[in-house]
Amino acid sequence: RTSKPSQAQRLMAGASEDGMVVNCEHLLKFVAEAKEEGNAAFKARKYSDALTAWQAGLDAIAQADGRPMLVEDMRLVVVVRSVLHSNRGQALMKMEFWRRAIKDLDEAIRIDGENVKALWRRSKAHEALKEWGQAEADVEALLSPRLQEVAGPLLVDAGLDAPKLEEARARLRGCREEAERVAEETFEERAEDAAHRGITELRERFEQVTRRNGLRGNTELAGELADMVTRPGGVTAAFVAGVYQIEEEDAEIMLEWVRKACMMQDELHMQRVV
């Protein structure tokens, strides 16, 4: 036996008494109030409160999912659901939660592919993350003949006429191409860069170790370590730790730096010979 829904469920879902067909008048009234509450909070820069209010509207709509609904009401519910997700995206952008914003904006666009405000906002969120290709793709979509036909006036009212969109597309394309150019640097250049950074970091660690262990003023240290490293059979970190009374981990760092320095010196000598 199936239990009847509670009065609260009926109010939130806007369900009519006969057959549980969703009464969109009730549903949309509740959602409109939640939307206005969110709008007021957003204008007051209370973005968390705005998110909560808009989510309440979405939760009410969710309770009507899967229930019979008049065809003429379905489009109204689709539009307002998309708008609430788009509004949440805008609030999250104000809070600089870019990826969370994109998640809501993705949903807004999935629900209503003609939600041009959501497309523009998602482009700006991708831009903030330097995701130039995705940002450019959303502007491309806004410039498509289909969206220009169905939502051109709305875009103009929002200050997003075709020339402005084309300017944004050109700018984003330039950013994307520059990012691609940088990413296509030769492997040798990147490897050389990484090697240089690695040497610098290793030298800094060596200096920290010598400073920490009171070896900074030992003018014989480099020569002694070089002799140990180059002797037949090499040398272990444990041996060096015992000689200088330091931790074995610190000794390993000292040896690593000296080995690298000796290798660099050998390479330099070979270059001079050649």
UniProtKB/TrEMBL annotation:
<dbReference type="InterPro" id="IPR011990">
    <property type="entry name" value="TPR-like_helical_dom_sf"/>
</dbReference>
<protein>
    <submittedName>
        <fullName>Uncharacterized protein</fullName>
    </submittedName>
</protein>
<dbReference type="InterPro" id="IPR019734">
    <property type="entry name" value="TPR_rpt"/>
</dbReference>
<dbReference type="InterPro" id="IPR052769">
    <property type="entry name" value="TPR_domain_protein"/>
</dbReference>
